[in-house]
Amino acid sequence: MKKILIYALVASVLQATSLIMPATAAEHPENSSEHPGDEVTAKSVKKGISDHVKMQTKASGGVLVVHDDKLKKDWKLKFAKVHDPVRTFVRERKAIFFACTDFKSVESDDVLDIDFWMVRKGKMFEVIDTKIHKVNGEPRYTYEGTEIKEIR
Fold it and tell me: Of 33, 47, 68, 130, which residue is the least packed, with the fewest Cβ within 10 Å?
């Protein structure tokens, strides 16, 4: 009985102190009980985002072009930083990882929060979706469970 209580306590502490946080806030989807694997860390997810940005911007001098359907324009952006915590949820039986990532416009003072949704592919990550989450701090969407709810 003592071993079970100790294991439960250790598991609670590990989950509470983990840098990979289940997505539970209103702007991020809820956590699922499915676990993607022990080798996934906040550092590896952030590296996956950074590697993707570097690859996408290599030919354009570090500029990422993201189309904005709402404003009907292409944003030309420079990477600023990836935020903590890294978040995860499960959709269609796949663990999806993301973190808020700040970019600055090269044409104005605008700051965009871009979410890169990634899945694990072997030891690497593959970006499956790129979403403009916020423009100058104003959210475009929030979550209800794991479903996106557009903010008008």
Answer: 33
